[in-house]
Automatic annotation (TrEMBL):
Lineage per the UniProt record: Bacteria, Bacillati, Bacillota, Bacilli, Bacillales
Origin species: Paenibacillus arenilitoris
SUPFAM superfamilies reported for this sequence: Galactose mutarotase-like
Listed GO MF terms: carbohydrate binding; isomerase activity
Organism superkingdom: Bacteria
Pfam families tied to this protein: Aldose_epim
Designated name of the protein: Aldose 1-epimerase
BP term (GO), one: carbohydrate metabolic process
Length: 329
């Protein structure tokens, strides 16, 4: 019997891809029809991600596509008034967080196409899905760039890896801002410490909607995170925006549940230069959100090298990697 399996199930009318690693006691569930959301991950007997109350709710509950599992963000966070300019072109995005903001883009709620899935002892359990802007004229009407996203989730030796390819198949440079939004399951009500370690170089001052209000600086909080800061009392609906250490190594973040003697370990590509911390008030969860740019970067009065605002050229392909795992303390 193989250690790994990959299966397709119909659950509440939606297709769910289930990846398992029997030896590690690990399982991941992805729903391609609802934003290709990795909505469940467990490993070693620990729940890592907060799932929705039902799979169907990801399609039917207002804002649920943003609130559970691992939403894929393009662009990440908010665009004030849904408007910005890039290379002389004006963009007007729908105000999906009325009355004033565009929030997190639309690929986190749209259906993705499953390309393949399978399992082997050598490669683990995998599924690859794709989203073409070119197939959605209603999206091209306000974002006229045929961008293609291809995501592979791979469960191997108890760890879940996410490899993303993003390609501009159009003839014009497109504005580019990308992020991930995992909701990690944390026991906030336990009374024990929840220690977060992150390679924070500085902290940007932000509003509670993550809009930037000034320039970054090393703060007592960003300094504490480098060695480990207790986030057990982090306020619900609070958020922080960190600039990460720009060294050669990929960033690694750890959330240690010291009373329960385990840690969630989140690694991601160093092309993600920024990290938003966010605690929702609708679940016992905490988000570490890696971004390629700060919130609303194209509307800020600072240089692109500071904010991460950039484009993706015609024919250009960008690749990103993130991984999740559990370690004993």
């Amino acid at each position: 019997m193989s250690r790994y399996t990959a299966a397709s199930e119909i659950r509440e009318g939606l297709t769910v891809i289930v990846l398992t690693d029997a030896a590690a006691g690990a399982a991941a569930e992805i729903v391609p029809e609802a934003g290709n959301n990795l909505f469940r991950f467990e490993s070693g007997g620990h729940t890592v991600l907060v799932p929705p109350s039902s799979v169907r709710s990801l399609k039917e509950e207002p804002f649920a596509a943003f609130k559970y599992g691992t939403p894929i963000l393009f662009p990440p966070n908010r665009v004030r008034n849904g408007r910005f300019a890039f290379r002389g072109r004006e963009y007007r995005l729908p105000l999906n967080e009325p009355p004033d903001n565009h929030l997190h883009g639309e690929i986190c709620s749209r259906a993705w196409e499953v390309i393949e899935y399978g399992a082997s002892d050598q490669g683990g359990a995998t599924v690859t899905s794709r989203f073409h802007y070119a197939l959605h004229p209603e999206l091209l009407a306000y974002f006229p760039h045929p961008i293609t996203f291809t995501v592979t989730y791979r469960l191997f030796e108890g760890q879940l890896r996410m490899d993303t390819k993003i390609r501009n198949d159009g003839e014009d440079e497109a504005p580019f801002a990308f992020g991930l939004h995992p909701y990690f399951a944390l026991p906030f009500g336990s009374g024990g410490p929840l220690m977060l370690k992150a390679p924070a170089a500085a902290e940007w001052p932000v509003t509670n909607e993550a809009f930037v209000t000034g320039l970054p600086a090393d703060t007592p909080f960003s300094e504490a995170l480098r060695d480990g800061a207790d986030i057990a009392d982090y306020p619900p609906l609070g958020c922080s925006l960190l600039e990460l250490d720009g060294g050669e190594a990929d960033p690694v973040c750890r959330i240690e549940m010291q009373d329960s003697r385990y840690a969630i370990v989140y690694r991601f590509d160093r092309r993600f230069r920024f990290l938003v911390l966010f605690r929702p008030d609708w679940a016992e969860a905490f988000s570490l959100e890696p971004y390629t740019s700060v919130t609303d970067a194209f509307n800020l009065p600072y240089g692109d090298e500071l904010t991460g605002a950039r484009g993706i050229g015609p024919g250009e392909e960008l690749r990103f990697r993130a991984s999740l795992g559990v370690e004993a303390l």
